[in-house]
């Protein structure tokens, strides 16, 4: 067992970034992410962190610096949240299309207006189509462990895509729990220096000058734009089996396994499935235990990766179930929860009469209790039993 410290999610991230031997960090502070860059700056000032630390005037510049540094073959890290992530939007596409293995923590927070600094997943889910791998954590230990795995995945020769590690603002970022650290020798065995031999992306080499970012027409240059998009899609699909290998190696070294693209709880004999992301999964587990004592055959699934989305595994787990209930901490106005539509799209391929019931919960940091979820499940089950199901979106706690 390694050293155990009481760390908030933000400090757990900073500790893992320090141990990852990052070459360049560029960041701008924004609540609730600020503590990450403050901690890294303090480490740099004291000399325990050797990375080049670049303060910038805003998040768009932070991502521009990351793109430039990663293009020289550096291991690069940044962190952001909410409006800061939105400000990066244009450059997120450039990072993905350039196949740069940047790792960024996004501390999930609601988007203004009105101003709100508390947790919501809408900020990162709005960036689901830019070509970044997206993974969501539900505990401080998982956040710490995922930093190493994210670098490993991003730098994999078969992937070479940026990774966005998302964690719930304040519920993880500012909540202190025991975190078991990994000794530096083990970290470097799992995550050695940046594997330059893997480089197959945009690379700035003064001895071999090239031009990047030129205009390409739909039919010239080997249909290059079309081909770029195809290759990004292919790399994203490659990330699924690659992460399975990475997780296995991590488990062999540390004994810890938080799941692959998704995680499950008491799912195999269940008739009803609760699906969620982030810390909502923790409340779902408690709700499942309480509801099982009342006789409900219910289980829970945590979607860890939004991109690549775990289609095949989710379909396999939900096949033959009576109903799937999706808890969303995000909203696409006029549609509903974003995760629910991802799940609906995936399960459509099952071609079964599976009932999917979406619910929005906890927007803008509104507390979601275990009892809230229990009451939601009881209400839905009663409606299904009486064949009086309401054909609409549920708003838990509203």
TrEMBL record:
The keyword Cytoplasm does not apply. Pfam families: PFOR_II, POR_N. One of its GO terms (biological process) is sulfur compound biosynthetic process. InterPro entries: PFOR_II, Pyruvate:ferred/Flavod_OxRd, Pyrv_Fd/Flavodoxin_OxRdtase_N, THDP-binding, Transketo_C/PFOR_II. Residues 271-373 form the Pyruvate:ferredoxin oxidoreductase core domain. Residues 15-238 form the Pyruvate flavodoxin/ferredoxin oxidoreductase pyrimidine binding domain. The keyword DNA damage does not apply. It comes from the Archaea. Keywords: Oxidoreductase, Pyruvate. GO terms for molecular function: oxidoreductase activity. PANTHER family: PYRUVATE-FLAVODOXIN OXIDOREDUCTASE-RELATED. Heterotetramer of one alpha, one beta, one delta and one gamma chain. This is Pyruvate ferredoxin oxidoreductase. It comes from Odinarchaeota yellowstonii (strain LCB_4). The lineage of its organism: Archaea, Promethearchaeati, Candidatus Odinarchaeota, Candidatus Odinarchaeia, Candidatus Odinarchaeales. The gene is porA.
